[in-house]
Amino acid sequence: LIGDFTRPFVLPLTAGKHQDLKCITPQTLVDLISGKFRDHVEKYTIVDCRYPYEYENGHINDAVNLWTKDMVWSVFMEGRKQQPPSTTHDQEKKRDILIFHCEFSSERGPALSRFLRNKDRDDNKDNYPALHWPEVYLLHGGYKAFYEQFDQLCEPRSYLPMNQQGHEEDLRRCRAKTKSSNGEGKSGRPLTKSTSRRLALL
User: Fold this and answer.
1) Which of 68, 102, 137, 191 is the most exposed place for a label (fewest CB within 10 A)?
2) Residue 114 zone, left/alpha/beta (φ > 0; ψ -120 to 50; rest)
3) Quick check: 141 and 26 in contact, CB under 8 A?
4) In the annotation, is 102 catalytic?
5) What is the dihedral of CA 49, 52, 54, 58, to 10 degrees?
6) Is residue 112 a part of any domain in this protein?
């Protein structure tokens, strides 16, 4: 069942190394993008947790680049009121789902996915098991696996590894910013190309 225990997951799941997270294959994500689940899914958001220099050198079409706790908190939790307990009507509504990933969906994607769920639980502790975001998935194999199978759905059509030679300083800056992000939305904002360019100048 999804996080608020109201109904099963709408997307088919696959086994992954993170037992607490629900994984989907790249093919399932393509099916979602192509509208196969439109009868059940109102909206979906692909959350790319890689660093800006990786994202700008190739990402899944329409994915948003949120790579710190502050950014995730600001976009998905800031200003939300406590979620009321689920009703039968809620169970019949179309879903608003999230799909997290990073390069391999090994560390950064899982960590920010867990962070969101923990914040969501804390925000709705008086109405457990209600959640703002009850249906959250992890893309198995991350961007690397998706790109290898469906590069035509990536923009630009390329893949830059996190540890790419020549980007050592980018990696250092991004890791430092990630460590300074406490997840309270103090400085988190959704990343745009202009803000990522400014980051490169820090």
Assistant:
1) 191
2) alpha
3) yes
4) yes
5) 90
6) yes
Q: Rounded CA gap, 112 and 71, in Å?
A: 10
Catalytic residue among 23, 49, 102, 174: 102
In a domain, 106, yes or no: yes
**Using an 8 Å Cβ cutoff, are 158 and 166 in contact?**
no
List the CATH number of the domain containing 130. Answer: 3.40.250.10
> Rg of the chain over CA atoms, in angstroms?
17
For residue 62, give both structure tokens: 């329409």
Measured distance CA(106)–CA(141) in Å, rounded: 8
Cis peptide before 110 (omega within 30 of 0): no
* Total count of domains within the chain: 1
The type of residue at 33 is I
For residue 26, the tally of other CB atoms under 10 A from its CB is: 23
- Cα 81 to Cα 84, 113, 174: the distances in Å are 9, 20, 31
Q: Is residue 5 part of a domain?
A: no
Higher pLDDT, 193 or 26: 26
Residue matched to tokens 């800006």: 52
